[in-house]
Amino acid sequence: MSIEPVSLTASLSAILPASTPALDAFAPLAPVQHPAPGFGDMIARCVGSVNDELVKVDNEVRQVAAGAGPSLHEVMIHLEEARLSFQLLAQVRNRLLDAYQEVMRMQV
């Protein structure tokens, strides 16, 4: 003896008339469409990338201070790259803030 799966929609259609609001509630939903990534997502990814780079360099500096890890020359190169990335991010932030303030000063 086996038990066959029962469809809820088929069971309700046997009980209720064909077009009832209760039966329409079980209709399959439209596929979910994800919105395209926006400007905020791009900025968040950039900030996360710069933060990851700073954390990585901090760990390398700690390893060098402990006498292990990569060479001092490589760590200095990574430190400079992280510094430049942070300065670029700060400049982008300053430009965005200036643009926002300029838009807010515009008279409508």
TrEMBL record:
Listed InterPro entries: FliE
UniProt KW keywords: Bacterial flagellum, Cell projection, Cilium, Flagellum
Lineage top rank: taxon: Bacteria
Pfam families referenced in this protein's UniProt entry, alphabetically: FliE
Location relative to the cell: Bacterial flagellum basal body
Family per record: Belongs to the FliE family.
HAMAP family: FliE
Protein name: Flagellar hook-basal body complex protein FliE
Species name: [Empedobacter] haloabium
